Amino acid sequence: MADCMQEWPEPVVRVQALAESGLSVIPRCYVKPPCDRPAVAPAAAAVQAQLEKDQPSDIISIPVVDLGELLLAEDGGAVGVGGGLGNDVTEAVAAACREWGFFQVVNHGVRPELMRAAREAWRGFFRRPLAEKQRYANSPRTYEGYGSRLGVQKGAVLDWGDYFFLYLAPEAAKSQAKFWPANPSNCKEVSEEYGREVVRLCELLMRVLSVSLGLDEAHFQRAFGGADCGATLRANYYPRCPQPDLTLGLSAHSDPGALTVLLADEHVRGLQVRRGDGEWVTVQPVRDAFIVNVGDQVQILSNSMYKSVEHRVVVNAEEERISLALFYNPKGDVPVAPAPELVTAGNLPALYPPMTFDKYRLYVRNKGARGKAQIEALKGQASSPEN
Ligand code: OGA
Ligand code: NI
Could you give the residue ranges of the DSSP H alpha helices within 135-241? Predict the structure, then answer.
C-alpha cells in the first residue's frame, strides 16, 4: 500500500469552530448516507436523569469486571492472574470478549483523581482559542497533534469531531515536546502519568487475556513485542451538533491495535457498540470505570476466538462530549499472526497472514474509519499463494 500523503487533501475545518459559529444546518460533507445515520439522536444530559429511571432498551451497561481482588493479590505477592486467584476475572473477561468484545473495568488501579485530571486537562485544551490550537495542527504523516479527520481520501464524508493525537510509548517513539500542548500547563505531565498507569492496566489485561485463552500469561505481551509495545493517546472532542441525526462523531470502526482503554465523558453518552444481532446499542459508562475493547490485533493473534467489535460515536444538539482513548498496540515492526497454540482442531485454519502493525495501520491512516473492512480484507489474503 502506498505511504500516507504528506498533507491533507482538502483544507482542514475545525468542527468546533463550525459548531461555535452557530450554524443550524451542517455542511454537506458531514451528512452521512441514510444507512449510516444514527436511528435516533441520543438523549442529552438534560433529560438523562429522567431516562435513568426508565432507561430505553438501547442503552446498556456492558459487562463490568471488578479487578480489585486480583490487584490486591498481586500487590501482596500472591500469584494472581496465572494462579487460581484470577479465575473469576478471567472467566468474566472471556465471556465479555466472546459476547461483546467490550467490557468495563472497575477497581482497576488507576486513581479516579488522575482520570479526572487527565480529562479536565484535555477539556481545558479544547477550550483554548482556535489560533492557539492551530499551532498544533497535525498532518497525515504521523497524525501527531490537533486533527479533524482520519484518512486522506478526497471528498470523503467527514465526522463531527476534532481530536488530539500523541505517541506515549515506547520511549523511542514518544511524541517530541513540540507536539504537546503548552496549555493547560499540566497537560503533558498529567497525560504522561495517566499514560503510564493505563499502560500498566493494559499489561495486566494482556495477562488476563492470555490466561483466558489457555495460554501462558506472558504470551500476548511477548507476541506483541514484549516491553516495547506501543501506546498512543487520542483525546476526542465532539462539539454540539445542530443536526445530530444526520451525522456521526466517529464513523463505525474497529480499533486496529491490540486493546483500547477509553475514559468516556462522565455526563454525556455517545459511544455505541454493534451487538451480535447487528443492532447499535448505546453504552452507559459506570462511575470511575474504563471501557475496554479488544482491537484487530487480538482478533488476529487469537485466530478470531476473540473478535474486535465495531463501534461508533453519536453526537447531540445540547452537549459537547469528550473522551480519552488510549490505544495499546504491538511494537511496530513485529509480525503478528495467529498463535499456533490456538490454531487447533476446532479452530482451523490460520485465518490471517503475518503483518506488522506499522503496515496494518497504514490502511486506516489512508482510508479512515471503515467498519471492519480492513481485517476482513486481511482474512482474504490468508490463503492466497503469495502469502
Ligand atoms: C476511538 C473511539 C469512542 C469515544 O477513539 O477509537 O472509538 O467514545 N472513541 O470517543
Ligand atoms: Ni475506537
Answer: 187-212, 219-223
Residue nearest ligand 1's atom 9 by CA: 325
- CATH architecture for residues 60-378: Sandwich (2.60)
Helix, strand, coil percentages (3-state) for the chain, rounded to 5, are 35, 20, 45
Q: Give residue 149 CA to ligand 2 midpoint distance, Å.
A: 14
pLDDT at 49: 46
Angle at 192 between CA 73 and CA 291, to 5 degrees: 55
Residue 26: all three cell numbers together: 451542517
Q: Work out whether strand 162-169 and strand 290-294 pair parallel, antiparallel, or are unpaired.
A: unpaired
C-alpha span between 241 and 342 (Å, rounded) = 45
* Candidate from 69-78, 110-119, 147-156, 215-224 with smallest mean pLDDT: 69-78
CB 271 within 8 A of CB 264: yes
Secondary structure of 255-276 as H, E, C letters? CCCCEEEEECCCCCCCEEEECC
Question: For 83, which DSSP code?
Answer: S
- Stated as kind and residue range, the H or E segment containing 15 is helix 15-20
User: How high does pLDDT run on average in the chain?
Assistant: 91
Q: In testing the pocket of ligand 1, which one of 251, 265, 283, 313 has its CB within 8 Å of the most ligand atoms?
A: 313
Q: Closest residue (by CA) to atom 10 of ligand 1?
A: 323
Q: Does 262 contact ligand 1 (Cβ within 6 A)?
A: yes
